[in-house]
């Protein structure tokens, strides 16, 4: 069974950022990724998607994303950037390799993959959340004859032309899909609360700077009461801004239940619906860690910084605020990846010294 110092599970942006930092140490490491090609979840996002920050604010450590025309890089530019990034730093990515289970031995962690077993002295988990979409339970859902989709299924608006569609979810995905569907479908937007839009001048860069200030204040034990914008508030991308101007981003509160043909609204009115698109987010894709017994009832892992409290040879990178501020973004994952790589290097060096 092959053995390495470190396995990074996941070869999207978070895994690549870890690879960038791990190269600094004299460690044997490999990045295992279940995709056929590089680019992580970006390869599966919808066709018109653009980032919510300019290129220089959508970059991984070491190499800035090249600026190509539009201020807001297109999905394909991000994929291209991630593939070139991998080559530029000659990162040891093996794909397609899926890690199915991880168990703990006294000296090594054992990874069972669809290409055999591999042992490691430490693991950095960077598997994102795209493979674990979340759809809330609704009364009558199973009797509904219409189609139910999630953001992960959406590619372009044509399929929904002239259909009666509900877009559910008040985040960036819901707003962007609604902006795209409003002119072609009979679409309504359903959100739990009235959606909060950021001012036109606030993009992902501003949010990232704010997250950094919050992080620094917390590290220094200082108070920071910047609450003007939330990281979950909707960024006014050009398409969203245009849709707002046209009055397409009007939202209603949720329906109470499904019927066979549609939904029932709180006032008792029934409406026929063809499609429901759930833009209701994701949960961390951590099923392969079940054998380590590190997950809580919500499927999350208790961490100190971004290191597991239960399994000290396991770090988690890129899963969002619970593993580090803004760590589920291109720019924000850098700090998280550096922290994990330094932690791994320290642990392995300490063990090396002890075993001399
Ligand atoms: P992923 O990109 O999901 O990569 C994880 C990799 O791990 C995948 O390649 C997957 O195949 C692999 N994997 C999973 N399980 C296993 C396993 N068991 N074994 C082996 N491999 C495995 N961020 C920004 O900075 N700017 C934006 O404008 C922006 N827009 C977004 C728009 C949408 C619609 C969404 C959903 C997210 C957006 N984000 C944006 C957030 C973020 O950049 C992405 O979610 C990003 O893809 C997360 O990167 P990751 O590497 O953590 O996960």
Number of strands: 17
Gyration radius from CA atoms, angstroms? 22 Å
Measured as a percent range, the helix fraction is 10-25%
Low-confidence blocks of residues: none
Tally the helices.
6
Q: Which kinds of small molecule does this entry bind, naming each only once?
A: flavin-adenine dinucleotide
Q: What's the overall average pLDDT, rounded?
A: 93
Structural class: alpha/beta
Order of helices and strands: EHEHEEEEEEHEHHEEEEEEEEH
Q: What profile does the largest beta sheet have?
A: 7 strands, mixed
* Cα shape: globular
End-to-end gap: 24 Å
Strand content: 15-25%
Descriptors for this entry?
binds flavin-adenine dinucleotide, alpha/beta, 17 strands, 356 residues, 5-stranded parallel sheet
Q: Describe it for me?
A:
The protein has helices spanning 13-22, 75-88, 172-181, 204-219, 238-245, 333-355, and strands at 3-9, 29-32, 93-94, 99-104, 109-113, 116-125, 147-150, 164-168, 186-190, 251-252, 257-258, 262-264, 270-272, 275-278, 303-304, 307-308, 314-316. With 356 residues, the protein is of the alpha/beta class. Strands 1, 2, 3, 4, 5, 6 and 17 form a seven-stranded mixed sheet that branches. The radius of gyration is 22 Å and the shape is globular. The two termini are 24 Å apart. It binds flavin-adenine dinucleotide. Flavin-adenine dinucleotide binds next to α1. The site of flavin-adenine dinucleotide has 35 residues, from α1.
